[in-house]
Amino acid sequence: MRGLVRTYVAVLGGPVLLLTVYFAVPLGWFGPHHPTISWMAFGVLLAVLGVGMLREVRMQVLGQSRHPVPRILILLCGALVVFSAAYLAMSKHPGELDGLVTKVDALYFTVITMATVGYGDIHPSGQAARIIVMLQLLYTVVFLTTGVTALTRQVKTRAVQRAHHRGRAGD
Hints:
Layout: H1 2-24, H2 35-61, H3 68-90, E1 97-98, H4 103-114, E2 123-124, H5 127-169
Antiparallel strand pairs: 1-2
């Protein structure tokens, strides 16, 4: 029971904490005035998130992960925050992202891009912005698919275990 409570707290609290940090931390330091630091931070954070997702999936495949849902959800929300921060920083460079001004705009654009909907009100105009959007789409396809596959495997395994357990109880 305590494990279930922890899982629900992580599932709800992790994304809320990440978004709170995203909106609370000033991100003005990143952008065209410090391009090397900005690109390095972006690359390192995406690599950390990618390694975390691959580690979680590996643990899932090996049957060593007990609660993948909160971890995968936090990793995916982390990717949303990292891409949102990158888009916000890039928007400071004229001609990169038309229509993106605030943190909410950046988060909105990231979610719309992740969902591959693309309303057109905010769009990448510059070459760097277009490259990052393509990177986000590839990142999303690979890691979202990987995460959903791991979660599906977990749900299926638990359903089979419960059915097997119920079958034994009825014998």
